[in-house]
Amino acid sequence: MDPVIQQWINTLTHGDTPIHLWPIHVSPTKKILSLEQDSRETLLVYSKDNAYDRYKTYSSCTRLVPRPYTILLNKETFLLEKIPGRLIGDQVYEKLHQDDQHGLTRLIAKTARYTALLHNDLKHCPHLPRPASWREVLEERCSLALEHANSETREKITRICDTLLQADAATTTPNYTGHGDLHLYQIIDNGKCLYFLDPGGEPDTKKKPGPEYDLAALIRSIEYVYETISQLHRPRIPLRHGIQTLLALYTEIQRYNLSSLAIGYIARLLYEYYYEKHYETGLEWIPEKHLYYVARDQHLWLGFY
Ligand SMILES: Nc1ncnc2c1ncn2[C@@H]1O[C@H](COP(=O)(O)OP(=O)(O)OP(=O)(O)O)[C@@H](O)[C@H]1O
Ligand SMILES: [Mg+2]
User: Fold this and answer.
1) To test ligand 1's pocket by mutation, which of 194, 197, 202, 278 has the most ligand atoms within 8 angstroms of CB?
2) Are residues 218 and 73 in the same domain?
3) In angstroms, what CA-CA distances link 285 with 29, 36, 77?
4) What's the CA gap between 144 and 146, in Å, rounded?
5) Domain check: are 49 and 138 in the same one?
6) Is the CB of 183 inside a 6 Å radius of any atom of ligand 1?
7) Within 13 Å of residue 24, how many CA atoms lie on the same side as its CB?
8) Are residues 206 and 61 in the same domain?
9) Which of 25, 26, 41, 56 has the greatest count of CB atoms below 10 A from its CB?
């Protein structure tokens, strides 16, 4: 057994009641075990990625983020409130797979509304790190993407980045920091409301983007689900239906800036390319394909910058 996990168990078994532990998630940056004691469930999180501080800060701003409890050995090992429920990503996948347009609309509408509510809470929170300018966000993600690009992709990324970095919109700085790494598999639906997991930014980045980045990342996440399903069959529900629902329902509660959304979309795409390549997930073909679309239709995107 992993010595760190063994140490957790030793720390925890000082009491008399038996503890049941089982792994529920392992990723490049995090291990999560489910822990049951006295019929009470929590999560045991082991993360080298500052997750404790991020959860602490965000959950002090909003009830829509789970609360971290005790630090066990050091900040890398802590207990986290467990939210029972289903991931939005799994549900969206299911509805798309079943061509259930009504169900899909309902889910995306709920996601959009809760994202807007999350942003409302974050907007007024004094503890969050200051957001970076769009130029800083973009520069960081451009250089991460270039770390792994082959010569053909490198040329496209350089061209996209050069154009974008000159855009007026890149000089603006958002008013507040968003979630920073939002996707459909970071949102849990407990039947009543939605909870946002893993707040505070993407692994290996320092520049914190504004709320439009979250919205862009959700659009990208819908596109990911489409790409994955398309390997099996072509969904009948058009992609634009999901994106339109997301944006329409979000704007019932919050405004967004279209230029920032376009920059956020490309910055997120570049980050995804970096992430999939760097962590060798085998999914780099998804952002790569979409980077090619952006490079091909750059004149269309230019209108939004
Ligand atoms: N508080 C929670 N309550 C219930 N389930 C959780 C909770 N936190 C995490 N999980 C489960 O663990 C999974 C991974 O969590 P998290 O996103 O924090 O890890 P990660 O390493 O950042 O993964 P990824 O890179 O896929 O985002 C979630 O998708 C969810 O299924
Ligand atoms: Mg995560």
Assistant:
1) 197
2) no
3) 22, 39, 34
4) 5
5) no
6) no
7) 14
8) no
9) 56
d(C-alpha 196, C-alpha 57), whole Å:
13
For 192-248, write each residue's pLDDT tens digit: 999 999 999 999 999 999 999 999 999 999 999 999 998 988 888 989 999 999 999
54 found inside a domain: yes
Query: Do 108 and 206 share a structural domain?
Result: yes
CATH code, 280: 3.90.1200.10
- One domain, residues 114 and 177: yes
Same structural domain for residues 266 and 245?
A: yes
Q: Is the CB of 80 under 6 A from ligand 1?
A: yes
42 C-alpha to ligand 1 centroid (Å): 13
- Is the pLDDT at 155 greater than 60? The verdict is yes
Structural domain tally of the chain? 2
- Please indicate whether residue 83, judged by its CB atom, sits closer than 6 Å to ligand 1: yes
Residue 4 lies in a domain: no
Note the helical H segments in 166-210. Answer: none
Confidence of residue 74 (pLDDT cuts 50, 70, 90): confident
Mutate which of 93, 198, 276, 280 for ligand 1? The one with the most ligand atoms within 8 Å of its CB, which is 198
Would you say 34 and 83 are in contact if contact means Cβ atoms under 8 Å apart? no
Q: What percent of the chain has pLDDT over 70?
A: 92
Q: Which domain holds residue 274?
A: 86-302
DSSP bridge pairs for 21? 35
Please indicate, yes or no, whether residues 131 and 35 belong to a single structural domain of this protein: no
- Taking CA 87 as the corner, what is the angle to CA 292 and CA 272, rounded to the nearest 5 degrees? 25
Taking 80 as the threshold, does the pLDDT of residue 109 lie above it? yes
* Residue 121 and residue 249 in one domain: yes
- Sign of the C-alpha dihedral computed for residues 138, 139, 142 and 144 taken in this order: negative
Establish if 9 belongs to a structural domain.
no
